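Saturday, quiet lab. Running sequence design on the structure tokens for the scaffold JK sent over.
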């Protein structure tokens, strides 16, 4: 057999092999999650877009992530419950936890257990990447739909590293992008590669990617500017005051992360991994950012005379509780839910006693 023919046969065999793997990847999605065999299948099918950006699509599902009939993550809403909102970004929406293990679901279970009722319903209105600014603009519509009595605000500081990101998008009212073909095998190959490539190699690759981004960036910051912290303070304050103006009791929650007071080598690698998403801020700046943003949240609670649940000081900073730099494991989400349930319990009990004992300034 000639060399060209051998090459052709090898390429054809390789092509058939890859097509077979892609077919079984699609069959796996279909059998496991009811995914369509054709078309794109990724997390973007959970969302549509409006003038503010990403918006949950009612009854959408992607793998373990399910949205309910009004486009929020979680089960269908039940009538005659005391509704509690959870505002936030991907930490609240839930990323690495098992299905139903994200902290809003755990909070609902624990709060009902502690009150000996089934009176409370937690509605997870968070969206990945959503800033306090966007949440404040969406809050009036959400309150009109859900009619909550209490709202937890767990704002993500990292959204404020690059302030232009906070401007409303110019996306059309609804997404008009046509489905595009994509290989579902790609994500599985990437996940497999991450599991076998040594961490030291992965970290070096991240460092090279960050160096390339630094070369393209106009500014690389050692420390977050005070302007960014003020903007975070002002946007969370806007969300809080918007909720209070509509008769909702806001509760501010500080932001927890995986880093303790003394950094280990693993912690430093994790900081590099975090910086990959925000190359304009140097690694040391992230921990400084978290401290200053949490101080801003504590100040907001004092200024507004509202409750603060300081989980940043209560959740142990370790890899058992955090799957990465800020996202929870199942264990971490369970601890988060428990701390929130304890902090909310006095307010929750007053809600059970009737309207005469409630006020929006609790």
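Result came back. Writing it out in full:
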């Amino acid at each position: 057999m000639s060399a060209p023919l051998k090459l052709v046969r090898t390429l054809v065999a390789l092509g058939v092999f890859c097509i077979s793997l892609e077919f079984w990847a699609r069959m796996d999605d279909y059998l496991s999650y009811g995914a369509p065999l054709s078309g794109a299948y990724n997390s973007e099918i959970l969302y549509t877009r409006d003038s503010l950006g990403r918006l949950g699509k009612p009854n959408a599902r992607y793998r373990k992530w399910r949205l309910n009939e009004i486009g929020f993550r979680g089960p269908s809403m039940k009538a005659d419950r005391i509704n509690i909102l959870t505002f936030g970004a991907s930490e609240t929406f839930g990323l690495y936890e098992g299905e139903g293990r994200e902290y809003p679901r755990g909070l609902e279970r624990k709060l009902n257990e502690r009150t000996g009722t089934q009176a409370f319903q937690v509605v997870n209105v968070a969206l990945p990447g959503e800033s306090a600014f966007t949440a404040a603009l969406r809050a009036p519509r959400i309150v009109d739909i859900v009619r909550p009595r209490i709202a937890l605000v767990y704002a993500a500081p990292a959204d404020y590293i690059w302030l232009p990101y906070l401007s409303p998008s110019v996306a059309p009212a609804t997404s008009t992008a046509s489905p595009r073909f994509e290989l579902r095998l790609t994500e599985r190959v990437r996940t497999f590669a991450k599991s076998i490539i040594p961490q030291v190699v992965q970290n070096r690759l991240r460092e090279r990617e960050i160096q390339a981004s630094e070369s393209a960036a106009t500014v690389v910051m050692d420390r977050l500017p005070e302007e960014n912290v003020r903007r975070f303070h002002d946007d969370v304050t806007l969300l809080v005051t918007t909720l209070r103006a509509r008769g909702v009791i806001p509760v501010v929650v500080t932001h927890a992360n995986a880093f303790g007071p003394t950094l280990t080598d693993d912690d430093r690698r994790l900081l590099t991994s975090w910086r990959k998403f925000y190359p304009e801020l140097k690694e040391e700046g992230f921990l400084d950012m978290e401290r200053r943003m949490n101080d801003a949240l504590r100040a907001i609670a004092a200024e507004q005379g509202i409750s603060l649940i300081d989980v940043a000081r209560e959740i142990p900073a370790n890899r058992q509780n955090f799957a990465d730099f800020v996202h929870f494991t199942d264990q971490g989400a369970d601890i988060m839910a428990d701390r929130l349930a304890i902090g909310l319990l006095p307010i929750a009990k007053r809600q059970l006693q009737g309207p005469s004992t409630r006020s929006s300034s609790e």
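Notes for JK: The first strand starts at residue 47 and ends at 50. The radius of gyration is 23 Å. Ask whether to fix the surface positions before the next round.
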